[in-house]
């Protein structure tokens, strides 16, 4: 893993841990960005974390670019030896797979897709070697996911599946982006799943939809009154498949202010996970049973 530093104009430095996504790269990026924050470097104005990288905005009138770069490289040495453990939370997110709303959108934009003859789920199941859409959906929700960044649009989480590389689901984005995607669509692009926090353009494959609001600029949703964005990097997500009746029930509860997401406090240790992925995942998901 070789870190790459790049200047972005006069006020930014981009720091990339690796060319490919991994939890090791994420944890190193997290440790570096936290170290920079804790160092309270004079002139640093903003730190923007991403999946396996981050960007620092600084004031060149306060700290020279070469001095800023030197400070960042000092932080890298600290990050290498940092503990790869997080006190975080696991969240159950209900998903209505093969719902009518994303299906309508899927069929409306077939000419922009790699395989216009089927659905996004048909295509994803086939290219990942699954015998059926049902088996693919089970693979999507059976293991937990790690929120590696939040952004692109307000509140949108990128999620990385907590399985070995040989079990990772990979699906390319649409050939041409759509001009429409239903709000709260559960999508997939590359090795990342996501939840579209707002309605709008998009290029990720569409698998289903969640009734659980994850972004509320007006902060009227009961569980978003303290902060308008639900997810944060380091969260762990367990998808829960639901049917139309359960979708309608949860949606109504969200609207009337009675819905409470199932959340449990957990510890995620990267070394423990790499040593025993299935065992670690089982412990994480067991925590939700006590909620």
From TrEMBL:
UniProt protein name: Allophanate hydrolase
Keyword line: ATP-binding, Hydrolase, Nucleotide-binding
Any one GO MF annotation of this record: hydrolase activity
Record-annotated membrane-spanning stretches: none
Gene3D superfamilies membership: 3.30.1360.40, Cyclophilin-like (2.40.100.10)
Ranges where the Carboxyltransferase domain occurs: 3-224
Source domain of life: Bacteria
């Amino acid at each position: 893993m070789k870190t790459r530093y790049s200047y972005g104009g006069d006020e930014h430095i981009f720091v990339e841990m690796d060319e490919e996504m991994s939890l090791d790269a994420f944890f190193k990026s997290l440790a570096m960005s936290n170290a920079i924050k804790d160092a309270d470097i004079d002139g640093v104005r903003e730190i923007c974390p991403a999946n396996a990288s981050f960007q620092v905005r600084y004031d060149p009138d306060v700290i020279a670019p070469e001095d800023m770069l030197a400070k960042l490289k000092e932080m890298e040495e600290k990050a290498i030896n940092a503990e790869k453990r997080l006190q975080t939370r696991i969240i159950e997110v209900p998903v209505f797979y093969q719902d009518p709303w994303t299906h309508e959108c899927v069929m409306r934009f077939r000419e922009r897709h790699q395989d216009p003859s089927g659905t996004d789920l048909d295509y994803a199941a086939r290219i990942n070697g699954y015998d059926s859409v049902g088996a693919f959906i089970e693979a999507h929700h059976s293991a937990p996911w790690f929120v590696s960044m939040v952004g692109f649009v307000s509140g949108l989480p990128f999620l990385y599946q907590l399985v070995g590389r040989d079990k990772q689901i990979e699906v390319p984005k649409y050939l041409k982006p759509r001009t429409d995607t239903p709000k709260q669509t559960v999508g997939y692009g590359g090795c990342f799943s996501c939840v579209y926090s707002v309605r709008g353009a998009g290029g990720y494959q569409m698998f289903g939809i969640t009734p659980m609001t994850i972004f509320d600029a007006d902060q009227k949703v009961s569980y978003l009154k303290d902060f308008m964005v639900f997810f944060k990097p380091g969260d762990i997500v367990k998808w829960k498949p639901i049917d139309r009746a359960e979708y309608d029930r949860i949606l109504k509860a969200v609207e009337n202010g009675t819905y409470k997401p199932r959340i449990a406090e957990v510890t995620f240790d990267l070394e423990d996970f790499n040593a025993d992925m299935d065992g670690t995942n089982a412990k994480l998901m067991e925590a939700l049973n006590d909620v």
